Predict the 3D structure of the following.
Amino acid sequence: METVKLAEVTRGSLVESIHRGAVAVVDTKGKLLASAGNPQYLTYFRSAAKPIQAIPVLESGAAQYFGLDLQELAILTGSHNGEVQHTDTVLAILRKIGLGEEYLQCGVHEPLHKPSRDALLSKGLKPTSLHNTCSGKHAGMLTLAKYRGVSLENYFRPEHPVQQEMLRTVAEMAGVTPEQIPVGIDGCGVPVFGLPLEKMAYAYARISASEDNGLTETRKEACHLIKKAMTTHPFMVGGTNRFDTELLAVAGGKLIAKFGAEAVYCVGIAEKGWGIAIKVEDGNLRALPPVVLAVLEQLEVLTSEEKEILSDYRQRRLTNHRGDIIGEIRAVVSLEH
């Protein structure tokens, strides 16, 4: 079966909706350790690829050359809320590489964080490309383009050397060839990569593993810095009231985690050298937190204290407009080992 039931949405005594999907858990050798549904389910990596896409910025020497700090490295991996701390950090990267925000080709949308959006409106200001949830990734791409001395205007196009370098890196980390990766265009205009869940999980196992990940020393160091950045500055990965940020903050450095649009989620468990990839088939993000936490619990990754802190995400209560509790979103995923 391609997909299985991952989560249920209840209202009163009835299950009103069902979210189906697939899960793959893989080690650094590429061995499938556990799954639900088809681990070969093919879908786009979306923004869960961002930590992998940050590797060339470090591996090339670009981040070191321009003096990017850990906070700035963290936002390269993030899908941020567009809060002031996020826009200031992206702007700081652009200043270090000698560019203005007009070079960002990610497009413009309002901040995802409602108070930040309201603050802009109250001042009579309009959002800019800095507020785009992917502006950190784009700043990283510009950093690499500037360091390589290639075109800054077209850095987002699939044929550009920066995008080709990122495609090769994703392919190498996932254990496939670039030709095996279907390429689409993401919401922010850059290429997005199609992979089986099992290969996404493999990439996360390798980027997160402390040892024995089969990478060169240069790449190991790049992966180490990406992990350190994400776990030291989890706010840069998402922001206020974001599950990515909460999970990274609570898990205490034992994992890295990143969501992607259309309900993709990837986790890397450092000490175990495991990677996890999850896809909710209908693309609904509301199912991800309960399912992710249920998978982590079944793999015995979280402590009792960590599970308690994250309990509101594990079984999400649903309320009506009066504030009455009328149902819940609950995970029903069951891993097969």
About this structure: The chain is about 40% helix and 20% strand. The chain has one domain: 4-331. The chain has a mean pLDDT of 96.
